[in-house]
Amino acid sequence: MSFIRKIKKGDRTYLAEVENTWINGKAVQRHIRYIGRQVDEQTVLSCSISEAEIESVKLSGPLMTLHQTANNIGLPELLGPYSAEILSMVYAHCLDYKSLNKMRQWFLRTDLNLILDIEELTEKRLVNALDALAGFDPIDKQREIFSGTKKYLKLHATGVVYDVTNTYFYGRQCKNAKYGHDKENRKGYPLIQIGLAVTQKEGIPIVHKTFPGNIHDARTFTDVSTDLCNFGIDKGIAVVDRGIISIENTRFFTQKQWKFLCGMKLDEGIRKKLGSRFSTDKQCQADQRIRLNQTVFYYQEQPYDHGNIKGRLITIFNRKKALETEESRLDEIDAAKIRLAQGQTIKPDMKIFFDKKGTLLKEKLAEEKLYDGVSFLFTTSDITITDAIKAYFDKDVVEKCFHSLKGIVRLRPIRHWLYDRVEAHVFICYLSCLLLSIMKLKVAPLALSVQEALDELEGLYRVYLKDSKKGFRINRLVALTKKQEKILRAIDKRLLQDS
Prior knowledge:
Elements: E1 3-9, E2 12-23, E3 26-39, E4 42-45, E5 52-59, H1 61-72, H2 75-78, H3 83-95, H4 103-108, H5 112-115, H6 123-134, H7 138-153, E6 159-168, E7 191-199, E8 205-212, H8 217-230, E9 237-240, H9 247-255, E10 259-264, H10 268-274, H11 280-283, E11 289-292, E12 295-306, E13 309-317, H12 319-341, H13 362-369, E14 374-379, H14 385-393, H15 396-406, H16 419-443, H17 450-457, E15 461-467, E16 472-477, H18 482-491
Parallel strand pairs: 6-9, 9-10
Antiparallel strand pairs: 1-2, 2-3, 3-4, 5-15, 6-7, 7-8, 10-14, 11-12, 12-13, 13-14, 15-16
Helix pairs in contact: 1-16, 3-6, 3-16, 6-16
């Protein structure tokens, strides 16, 4: 592939189109044609600009930033000989996902041939890239990637947030896809589980792992947490959802000297601990109040043993949520009354509020109302209550990663049936999520979301010009807007050198 070379002679800089060729086993630059010269960092063509024709206009801005971010954490070197093809799929997932057989058309509309130094994409090379990616040891590769990310961002990760999501399949061919509980109640499709650990403070993906769809969430953490130790993250604090915690996991945390903070489901043990006189009214005290974003919580704490593990039970009350829950239940009860009066059936979860004659059981209604808006946290750490509430209810850093996986990067539904290709597909989505998470940190000071920043950069095109008479080509980025300049500077000021 030819490129423009700067040649300095005295105080002048000339531009020439050259290409590298191999002669007798050595790389030699072959001069193709003189282009012009550079004055005050501007290109002065050897012909009039009026003689040059626009050959093509290609999307460049978002791809420049994604590729610079990938370079900053060393991805091109870590992904092997098919890195250009793999990164093209990663960037496509971030911006405008297309199925493999449409990637070539998407590629031709972009500046990736220049950015990735790749002539063209074919479906065969993309499939080969997926197979090459599947040949990596996924944990070893993620450890290398996180090492580069940690170094670039200067992370000191001790806290992690872990959660599990699932995705569904069309078809029945993947051996890892099993029928299980779909978190979005989509029935009739085989699933795989994806466990993801991210840094607690920044929300940067650390490691992901896939599991069969019939594996319970709680069983996945023991596996992933062992890998976290190999990533240099141990003896920290893990923030996990209530679906993750189990007696087995609490013992595991203790054995591995991990502290943890988790959500707890209301069970008989908690009911007994709170006692029969529990009331949220007693909890709503000024000195037991905390505001997190737009939500106000009231709290209390007490010692609590979970599976012989000593810790603290933190009871949290959200008055606004309690009122919404109560009003929603009363609406459903009113609807149930009408259906019963008409001799129709009612929802199973509404039956507990009526006796056999259809009379409303007010004592049952009061009992159910008692815990409206109430959540429970259990922790073995000495974290303050304020920090515990912030850490748990800010754990949406991992949920936002899942949103990116399922939304922007188009994780679902998976259409690659071979097990190895499924693993490769999820890995590409993980890489996409990683790049978006890093860019999110970079543009946050601009009060922009990563999606807003990428949308703004979509107006940054590269124009390819051709001089039909003299036969040379040159390309130029269109002029930057002030907002685009700020985004490029925030992500990496070196991007401004290319613009």
